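pls design
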């Protein structure tokens, strides 16, 4: 739909800094490989226009504290895409009985950009993560908490980090 009644469309642009977080360089190509694993270049996944994987560090950290995944496209089922993305957040891939099902995700307020925000805690040694999707299905993304000692008790804080990261990289599509 075009014109004044068309839904707002967004693009994602991961900045070098977000608050006190600094983007980690991908000199070894780890995040490029992870991006390729999450968004394979197959005809069945052409719904993604742009996608990326980036990592951010807190001051004084020696390694990534948060891994951020984002994609833009036209998603007929934003919640379905969110659930699929949240299930793929785990680098180990789908693990029978280990990756939580969508029924186990916790719903949080999405913040001023609206849409949906769901999180899942540390289960079976997996990384806590939150994922969002726009109401109109133009962006999806996730933030995985890589900090040592992070567990399910940190989901409120992780949801807040996710809202801040999403807001910092979301811009109106022209």
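designed seq:
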């Amino acid at each position: 739909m075009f014109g004044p009644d068309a839904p707002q469309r967004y693009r994602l642009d991961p900045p070098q800094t977000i608050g006190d977080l600094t983007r980690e360089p991908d000199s070894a190509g780890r995040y490029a490989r992870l991006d390729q694993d999450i968004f394979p270049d197959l005809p069945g996944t052409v719904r993604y226009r742009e996608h990326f994987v980036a990592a951010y560090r807190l001051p004084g950290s020696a390694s990534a504290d948060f891994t951020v995944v984002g994609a833009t496209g036209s998603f007929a089922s934003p919640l379905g895409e969110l659930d699929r993305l949240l299930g793929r957040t785990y680098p180990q891939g789908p693990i029978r009985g280990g990756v939580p099902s969508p029924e186990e995700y916790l719903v949080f307020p999405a913040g001023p950009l609206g849409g949906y925000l769901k999180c899942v805690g540390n289960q079976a040694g997996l990384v806590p993560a939150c994922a969002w999707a726009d109401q109109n299905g133009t962006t999806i993304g996730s933030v995985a908490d890589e900090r040592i000692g992070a567990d399910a008790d940190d989901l409120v804080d992780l949801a807040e980090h996710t809202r801040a990261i999403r807001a910092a990289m979301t811009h109106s599509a022209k």
